[in-house]
Amino acid sequence: MSDQTVYDELGVPRVVNAAGTKTRIGGSRIRPEAVEAMGRAATEFVRLSDLQAKASEVIADATGAEAGYVTCGADAGLLLAAAAALAGDDPGRMDQLPDTDGIPDEIIMPRTHRTGYDHAFRTAGATIVDVGTNDRVLGTGSTAVEPWEIEAAISERTAAIGYVQKPYTEPALSTVTEIASAHDVPVIVDAAAELPPTENLSRFIEEGADLVVFSGGKAIRGPQTTGIVAGRSDLIESIALQQLDMHAAEEVWQPPTSLVDGERLDGVPRQGIGRPLKVGKEELVGLLVALESFLEADHDAARGRWRREAERVTAALESVEGIDLTLDDDDVSVAPEVVVHVDTTAAACSATQLVRTLRTESPRVFVGADRLDEDVVTINPMCLTEAELDHVIARIRSSLTATQ
Ligand SMILES: *Cc1c(COP(=O)(O)O)cnc(C)c1O
Predict the structure, then answer these.
(1) Partners of 22 in the beta sheet?
(2) What is the pLDDT of residue 137?
């Protein structure tokens, strides 16, 4: 492992990341070519609206959507998508948000699609109306949401339908977009972590989504504070008008026409609800370069490499007492993961103790801790160098064989 990182220089504990692309420990390892381009972007000036217009072209090419926009993360993309659905092309409404008096402001979501990230919809001013039940999780019934429940919730107060894309979410996106388009309601899809496969860049647009958001700081391996919105050009224009810096005198306000039709508007909108979600020229350029590399990358080869690394972990930990190892390599997750089930009666410590121990040592080691209720920790090879992988194996082995 590298000896002196910038975090060591700052006296901040560094992290060995065996948990995958998690925002709170730094997202992903940015592509070197993106870093290089960011350095060059930082030393010159550019009009951000021109750069966003170029980004729109690049994203349109990559996704098959009419237009696109770079945001400071997928969650920011959700906020801006909601703002576009609420305000449309009306500068008065743009100025009014997040106050929605007199504006249709409901975003309908299947209850099973609710996540902590949907706070972003409410931040724009929307009210989330969730439909369906949680029967399946509670074991009290077999279904979660029926298409008719979504349709029945649509009214003159509806601004959009929110949908979280996972390989197992239901109803199918195409079913939801069909209902939505019959009522002329846009569908906003959160597909933040659904890459790779590369085809997913275009899939949800093909299935009728009006706006789709992806994270730029996950598998695309762009700057951590980037995201992409792809979709309808009128909605992307609304996003641009609500996000770009708008302190411009009307006489000299000439935004790129491919992004914003300034002529059509009565005047320059004010700083919008998206203005706090600033995207710098460096991040914008870094994302575009990373996206290009992502499109060219051999994702099967990467998966093969992660698979071999996961097998190496399994082989190295096999002899440790009190744990049960499986390799989870289904199509649902981006990288194969090693699932370590800790038998609390036979192992030296519990799964929770293991996680706590590893996180408090130096460097901090983060393993996947989303399944502690099942006494499970996971090891994800995606964000590890070879040397770090060895370190993780050694630390887990040592923690689990230490006498209490
Ligand atoms: C990661 C994630 C987000 C947030 O993405 P950021 O780019 O960190 O803002 C939103 N929704 C889902 C489902 C995610 O997995």
Answers:
(1) 27
(2) 86
Domain extent at residue 302: 6-26+298-400
Per residue in 351-389, pLDDT tens?
999 999 999 999 999 999 999 999 999 999 999 999 999
pLDDT digits (tens, 9 = 90+) for 244-275: 999 888 889 999 999 998 788 888 999 999 99
Give the domain-ending residue among 243, 276, 296.
Answer: 296
pTM across the whole model: 0.94
**Ligand 1 centroid, distance to 152 Cα (angstroms):** 29
Residue to mutate, 25, 188, 190, 224, ligand 1, most ligand atoms under 8 Å from C-beta: 190
pLDDT at 61 over 80: yes
Predicted confidence band at 348 (pLDDT cuts at 50, 70, 90)?
confident
Same domain, 161 and 260: yes
The closest-lying atom of ligand 1 relative to the alpha carbon of residue 75 is 9
- Packing angle, helices 233-243 and 48-63, rounded to 10: 150
What CATH number has the domain bearing residue 316? 3.90.1150.180
Closest by CA to 114, choosing from 99, 96, 132, is: 132
Strand order in the sheet with 187-190: 67-71, 227-231, 211-215, 187-190, 158-164, 106-110, 127-131
Is the beta carbon of 77 within 6 A of some atom in ligand 1?
no
Same domain, yes or no: 22 and 129:
no
